[in-house]
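Forwarding the complex inputs:
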Amino acid sequence: MAGRIKIRAQKKGVVTEVKALMRHPMETGMRKDQAGEPIPAHFITQVSVLHGEQPVMQGHWGAAVSANPFLGVRFAGGEPGDTVRVVWTDNQGGTGEGETTIR
Amino acid sequence: MKKPNLEVALLAAWLCAATLAADDGVFDQYRDLMGDENPAVFVIDEGEEFWLTAQGPNAVTLESCDLGLGPGVTAGAYVRFPRHFADTNAVMDLESRLVYCMTTIQGRDLESVTAKPYSLRGDFGTEIEALVTWLAAESEGATIAPEQAHATERAMYALGKDIFFYRAGPHDFSCATCHEQSDKRIRLQALPDLTSHTGAAGSWGSWPAYRISQGLVRTMGWRLRDCFRQQRWPELQMGSEASIALQTYMAVNAAGGTMTAPGLKR
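Prediction (whole assembly, two chains):
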């Protein structure tokens, strides 16, 4: 059920505040299950915030980020009604994408 | 000589209280940073999807499941649990009621639906956890009002109270050892007094909850099972009489409080 993102984007003065909550297990690869077998690494490696088609933030993530990560970011500009997208890819080739309009 | 000692003791007591309050304050700040965001929202959606997915040999959804307010009525159902059901002639908690619906309506195998009710390390939530989370959210803001009209419901409360105060196991622990005073903590977590209305309402009303440290939503059934583990008692089975009795004891003590689940916890 990974891949879902909840996003809110709100104009605050001259900046737009984006809050995104992502559904992802973010397994480090260092944990073992109840039977003692290693749980395969599964985490987001790249995450981007786009204002329209324009990237406003790009991040390289790793195993240290929590499960179901929460991302808060602000960028200059943006007008109510504009589209904001958050996209990620993980180390297993999975992707997630969410979209909202600025309030 | 006596008086300064008393002042030192009072200062120490005040410092302890201040430390406790500060810890809660830090966690409140964390909640503020998250705003209204609780990763449990994903689990709520998943629970609703499970409810509406045709499953089992009968290939039907759970929409005809009667949670006490009539078949398919989900809003406000959770706050009336645990309650007596005429069709099973038993007091059931939500988890055991869901298992009953899965086996009778969907025709699923009892062993397979109860094999793993709660997530293990590395899991990403189970069907039971998702359903309970969604159904709790369907009662968000409602007043906790477990049924106590039927004699078996009152007997379940009495049994729950007995278990709550029953000392057993290698550590001679009872639930009350940790949960009958309001000013105690374990490590940095304040321990609720579950014999009081305030303590019980705060706990019963905030589970199921997203546990940040585990990245999972946990249910009250899991919480009780983990309490048993911490007491070094035998493993508490989901839907067992002991589990339902303890839940009845807590829910009745919490009656009149508000359901705020799913909560957000450390």
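The two ends of chain A are 28 Å apart (CA to CA).
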